Amino acid sequence: xxxxxxxxxxxxxxxxxxxxxxxxxxxxxxxxxxxxxxxxxxxxxxxxxxxxxxxxxxxxxxxxxxxxxxxxxxxxxxxxxxxxxxxxxxxxxxxxxxxxxxxxxxxxxxxxxxxxxxxxxxxxxxxxxxxxxxxxxxxxxxxxxxxxxxxxxxxxxxxxxxxxxxxxxxxxxxxxxxxxxxxxxxxxxxxxxxxxxxxxxxxxxxxxxxxxxxxxxxxxxxxxxxxxxxxxxxxxxxxxxxxxxxxxxxxxxxxxxxxxxxxxxxxxxxxxxxxxxxxxxxxxxxxxxxxxxxxxxxxxxxxxxxxxxxxxxxx
Length: 315
What we know:
Elements: E1 2-4, E2 17-21, H1 29-45, E3 49-55, H2 58-62, H3 74-83, E4 88-93, H4 96-99, H5 103-115, E5 117-123, H6 136-146, E6 149-153, E7 157-158, E8 161-162, H7 165-173, H8 177-184, E9 189-195, H9 200-203, E10 209-213, E11 222-230, E12 233-242, E13 256-261, E14 272-283, H10 290-310
Parallel strand pairs: 1-4, 2-3, 2-5, 3-4, 5-6
Antiparallel strand pairs: 7-8, 9-10, 9-14, 10-13, 11-12, 11-14, 12-13
Helix pairs in contact: 7-8
């Protein structure tokens, strides 16, 4: 797969292609349906498949007060595109100046002149250009004039509601991990490098890997049944996401991801790991002291081991 930071980085325009345009935050079930249409069309015409996307997220540029955070990092997005057969990914820098480009100019300068699409595939609610004036009727008229085949993908619904990145974030914020994973069509995970912490876990017999995530979005604070992946292998684990209120005077502090791997005793410092969330156990809480904390941790570990016994397909 070829990745370009902006369409004008292409050394020469593509002779032909099938293109989709969007943010693709999470590459969830709805996005996957759209991408399948792109690769199928591209195979039919024998031309490259192209995803044209943006970074940073347009909402972060135009409405920074809304605090929209991506579910996954851009590396994950590219991995998902590659796994689904996309051949070219164009990541256009989204700026306020870029947002003022008219719909006509955007299609002329960034899409048609550089990618020469035979087919354009977009979602039902797609809009683009200055003031989002480039809506579906505009696109239908433009493509008809240019002889471009236009495929509009209807909303992908799950249990009576449209699948969206916003809905998935809400499920994760509520601790509904299983539902979020169903909407994603894969297991939600956080990726980052293992850093040296205070080593409190090791002193009470429960050593943890402390991970600094590569994204700003954080699910509900609390304890989870997880799988931790590194070196190509999955390890059953239990993970706490939060601020360690028992050790914070005001109950505040930086968010930490601390993972205890079962039946494992080796240092992971500096390694990149992925922590997959399977099931929410409980909210984070402040304990009266170390003894109460140790008792609760052992209860959490027992519950997590029981989860894996009851769900052997996840272990």
